[in-house]
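Objective 1b: paired records.
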Amino acid sequence: MKSSKNHSQTSSNELYAKREKIYPRITFGFFSRLKALSGVILLGIYYLSPWLQWGDRQAILFDLPARQFHIFGLTFWPQDFIYLSFLLIVAAVTLFFFTTLAGRLWCGFACPQTIWTDAFLWMERLVEGDRPKQIKLDQAPLSFRKFRIKATKHLLWIAFALFTGFTFVGYFTPIHDLIPAMMAFNLSGWETFWLFFYSFATYGLAGWMREQVCTYMCPYARFQSAMFDKDTLIIAYDEDRGEPRGPRKKGADYKKQNMGACINCTMCVQVCPAGIDIRKGLQYQCISCSACIDACDEIMDRMGYPRGLVRYTTENTLKGDISSHILRPRVFVYGGILLAIFIGIGVSIAGRSLVELDVIRDRNSLFRETNAGLIENIYRLKIMNKDNQPHSYDVMATGIEGLQLIKDQEIEVAGGSIMTLPVRLAADPQNLLKRSITITFQLTARDNPELTITEEARFLALRR
């Protein structure tokens, strides 16, 4: 029983190893600058977009109560839900395309988890210092100085996370209305919930969990290998050139010493935000941030060795296959599919109707006979103006000879609004050859004849 208990404890320890904090060293180089630029651009888009105005409204606003989704000059309605499906398809195919071409390029340079984690790491370095200072601070006993530094860092993190949550809510509630409501503690329940939930998620995922999200929570880390092949660009260590590795003096002829180019400085490990050793080969924890490339190139420059010991390459190239091709059929297939989807979406949006018409029959009566001896049917026209400009419309009905349309008011619909209009259709019984006849309503904007739509309905009468 005792042996079984010890074995259970050992298994538990193996399965649930305690996380060791990673202190990634800052590095400078081409890929580091490219990643920083990507982060600034993406964070700038996220934080600045809600503040942009388009006419008299917010440029990007997902107005859920009004069921209107404004993206600059375009307004989408629930009836346009198909475009969301297209957007998800585009995201999936784009991920397949870039993964096939260059591995986890998305994870390293554009994933929100990576971008926000880098922002939190920058704030951490700003307050605590670089890697050696952070390690020394964490190993030091608790003191007022340590408490002050840690408290400052977390206050900065929390403020940034709250601003992130506030910005997120600003995409759904006009951000200029959100500020006075928040200052007056007059936020709705849902606004309050999402502000704090998104803030907490940002603080927890980017501040505390960091690489654990990429390693354990993100499913992409597990199925990425299904999209890799031996011609996929990956970040790899050139073992043939680097081994056997070991320290040496600058200027020493390492080849005469039967050594490789790697001086075993471990800089590639120290700069890795996932804490892996790229020299052990391709690992699912690697997010392809390229920090190890910049770090290794810097060391190679100092030693006077050629760059590229750690580089973007392919498995076939590392094996010496000169026939390796980065641009291969599957890349063109994914690229062609992606281009076709983009063209399809563009054509569909450009050609979509800016007016919707629903015809609803009056359920209280099938038909009635007027004092003039005509057969009358009653309908409700639900008119949706999907344009941002107001329009006046004319409506007509066809399908029965001498059909008369009677309405009590003019059809004037504001931009992005819906109008319900009751109308009556009257026909001479002599022209009603069947009990149920197909008729067509046609709605046309007075200021734009091309803005027109038709909708079929049924006209009911006595059986002849």
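Objective 1b, second protein:
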Amino acid sequence: MRFDLTDLRLFAAVAACGNITKAAESLPIAVAAASARIRALEESVAATMLSRHSRGVELTPAGEVFLQHTITMLRETTKLRHDLSQFGEGVLGNVRGFNA
């Protein structure tokens, strides 16, 4: 089972919007591609995570669990980016080769 950040962001957006089309437009990603990614996610975990209706989607119990983990992973990814950016900005790290 492999997830990329686009899949996780998409799933979180779908859960927030309750609609695949609106979520796709917010990212932006083609609606057909978004639908295919969600379907592939469900296939990879062998569970239905969205209950599809004419007015949108609802999370199934499996979808609720996946969303909680998705939120955690996206938060950690944001924190990781922030923490590592401080090295690139010179805020953190060791200066080598300087003899005082």
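The chain has a mean pLDDT of 90. The beta strands are 50-53, 56-59.
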